[in-house]
Amino acid sequence: MGIILPAHMPALKQEAGWDTVDFSSLKSMTTGSCVIPDDMTAFWHGRKVPLLQVYGSSETCPIAIHQRAANAFDTEGSIGFPAQHCQVRIIDEAGQDCAVGDAGEILIKGQNIMAFYWQDKAATDKALKDGWFHTGDIGYRDDKGCYFFVDRKKDMIISGGENIYPAEIETVLANHPAIQEAAVVGRPDPRWGETVVAFIVTENGCSLNEEAIRDWLSDRLGRYKHPRVLHFIDQMPRNEMRKILKDDLRAMA
Question: In terms of CB atoms within 10 Å, which end of the chain has fewer, N or C?
Fold first, then answer.
């Protein structure tokens, strides 16, 4: 078994002979920490290696939902099923359980959940209610009880009254052959509330302009989800865990 993050893939692709490596002795690859690009899943599954997504946080110590090698190909694109001894709910803004297929906040309950935030009662009271940890993440479940991650609740963009999930736009952008990485944030707007701003890192040696990107998006996303502004940058700001720092991008936007 191996562990890999989406941020590792661009570097691996640059390795000579990467496309012809023999992966026959590799039983599975585990990933998580962010939305997993479709092409990353396609790469590993195309080589018959199950790519197993795991979901959790420090507060859930850490894995609360995960895929299993036995059904990874049948649950492609999901984060899997609740971990042992974990309960999971999806709730709407009113605190009611969402119907199958409807997106809402992911809640986790179990003996693995933290007791409290150190010396921060306000944060503890906000995150823990009746034993349920409110993750601040948006997801949904299908009729088989399989869970899917949509985006961070705080990253959701509300533009003209419409809820826009950056991860959806990022996935579409990342599927462009000339784009190595894409990150999307909201920028305050006096008319729409927020507008969509995209930051793009192109593949080495590739040239790309705004017109080409807008053409790519035209039949892949609803018009209201299209970025109003596009920024081309050399690299994404990241923390020690290689997660993209969306707050830094919002400041840049």
Answer: N
DSSP 116-152: --TT-HHHHHHHEETTEEEEEEEEEE-TTS-EEEEEE
What are the pLDDT digits (tens) for 111-152? 999 999 999 999 999 999 999 999 999 999 999 999 999 999
For the entire predicted model, the pTM comes to 0.88
Helices (H), the chain: 9-13, 38-46, 121-127, 166-174, 210-218, 246-252
* CATH architecture for residues 2-153: 3-Layer(aba) Sandwich (3.40)
Tokens encoding 165: 């999930």
Give the pairing type, strands 29-32 and 51-56. Answer: parallel
Instruction: Write the pLDDT tens digit of every residue in 157-175.
Output: 999 999 999 999 999 999 9
Pairing of strands 179-189, 147-152: unpaired
Q: Enumerate residues 6+ apart whose C-beta is below 8 A from 183.
A: 166, 170, 198, 199, 236, 244, 246, 249
| CATH code that applies to domain 156-252 | 3.30.300.30
C-alpha count within 13 angstroms, C-beta hemisphere, residue 8: 12
| Structure token digits, residue 17 | 């002979």
